[in-house]
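Onboarding guide, step 5: your first structure request.
Type a short instruction followed by the sequence, for example:

Predict the 3D structure of this protein.
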Amino acid sequence: MITERGAANIDFLADMTTEEATGWLTNLPGVGLKIASLLLLFYFKKPVLPADTHVHRVT
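The system replies with structure tokens like these:
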């Protein structure tokens, strides 16, 4: 991330679409869809619904 952007800062994700930001985040090692969705929802106020794999099993 630092080598790509020059700094450890993710504020640029606010200018991306939700799909682009999700894709960028999930390409980072150890970041899955749930973590990406939580970050996009609570930090960037993007229209996403964080859910883990148990939601599919329960519903």
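Each response can be followed by summary notes, for example: Residues 2-58 form one domain.
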